[in-house]
Design goal:
It contains 18 helices and six strands. With 348 residues, the chain is an alpha/beta fold. The protein has a six-stranded mixed β-sheet with strand order 2-3-1-4-5-6. The protein starts with 7 loop residues before the first strand and ends with a helix.
Length: 348
């Protein structure tokens, strides 16, 4: 009998998905994150060493509504095939998250069932989907965690009604509940640990600077790695883009003082911000309308980075830059280090 086929899908949402993707598209990092989130009875089944990142084009039409995704192959319980996990990356709590997950599950299972029937495979056609929500809402996750939570109490308490109502739970990774010590205890590599720290703290005014001293060793470890410069530039650009009321000059000086290994990366970002007037644009955004100032700053920075990495920009790319809103520009800024063309960055 042919082994059942499973699939692990990591679905990321803007505006912070680029940073999350940069950290966790590595199978090793993804495995480390999962190992710290899943119950032991699940981690015991998954062969994390078999994780294999699949081409982005393999996501299929059933994921077109999502802005980005990572697909990994893995074995489960000793059987070759796929294990399926759905990652939702949330910057705000979502009341309808279980309903969204159910919609994804249904589309995925319909597709798997149709493929099973077309190939006339023996065995069972469907695989379980384990929903994991990584939330960095500064207010904490305050939305339902189970599908049944969307129904009134009489339905959940009544045995017969409960038996005809589908239910599943989402594993919520609420970063707002984690201290620096909690993040360190996860045994993640330094860069993905720093990413979770930045996701947790960057949008809370003053939080990045207050906690910066605690992360000097991690910044040094990343800075000394072979590809550490690119990783730190991605991290610092994210912080400069989303951190509210951050005096970047102060942040830059403190990073350079705490971690000489990170100094080159922070100086590079500072020079880029100064060259394109991002700091001035951010200040103008606060004084004359934050969204317009931030939009112009992001557009100028993105245009500069695209030109530096890919050369002269086509008319189509330029038009997309001019038409994009502030959230779209933020998503594209986060994506640039992992994209292989200007067209891919602006979703042409």
């Amino acid at each position: 009998m042919r082994a059942s086929r499973y699939e692990w899908v990591v679905v990321l949402q803007s505006p912070h998905d680029g940073l999350f993707r940069a950290a966790f598209e590595s199978p090793r990092h993804a495995a480390q994150l999962l190992a710290g989130l899943l119950p032991q009875e699940l981690t015991a089944l998954v062969e994390f060493g078999s994780l294999e990142l699949q081409p982005e084009g393999g996501r299929g039409k059933h994921l077109e509504e999502f802005r980005a995704d990572l697909v990994f192959r893995a074995s489960i319980a000793g059987a070759p095939g796929f294990v399926c996990f759905l990652f939702e990356h949330q910057s705000t709590s979502d009341l309808g998250m279980p309903l969204r997950v159910l919609g994804y599950q249904l589309r995925h299972w319909e597709r798997a069932f149709a493929e099973h029937r077309r190939r006339e495979n023996p065995g069972h056609p469907l695989a379980p989907i384990v929903p994991i929500v990584v939330s960095h809402d500064p207010r904490g996750w305050n939305a339902p965690r189970e599908f049944a939570d969307l129904f009134p109490d009489p339905v959940r308490r009544h045995e017969t009604l409960r038996s005809v109502t589908p239910n599943f739970r989402c594993f919520i990774d609420d970063l707002s509940e984690l201290s620096d010590e909690d993040l360190r205890a996860r045994a993640l590599a330094p860069f993905p640990t720093l990413v979770l720290w930045a996701l947790r703290d960057a949008r809370t005014p003053g939080q990045i600077l207050r906690h910066l001293d605690q992360w000097a060793d991690a910044l040094t470890d990343v800075g000394n790695a072979a590809d550490g410069g690119d990783a730190l530039r991605q991290l610092f650009m994210y912080i400069s883009t989303v951190a509210e009321n951050l005096e970047f000059a102060t942040f830059k000086a403190r990073v350079a003082q705490l971690s000489p290994a990170a100094e080159e990366a922070i100086m590079t970002i500072a020079e880029q911000l100064q060259a394109r007037g991002l700091e001035r644009g951010l200040q103008q955004g606060l004084e004359q309308g934050r969204e317009q100032g931030l939009m112009q700053a992001r557009r100028e920075t993105l245009e500069m980075q695209l030109t530096m990495k890919f050369g002269s920009l086509s008319a189509a790319v330029t038009a997309r830059l001019q038409a994009a809103d502030v959230d779209t520009l933020g998503r594209w800024l986060a994506r640039i280090l992992t994209a292989d063309s200007a067209d891919a960055v602006v979703e042409l």
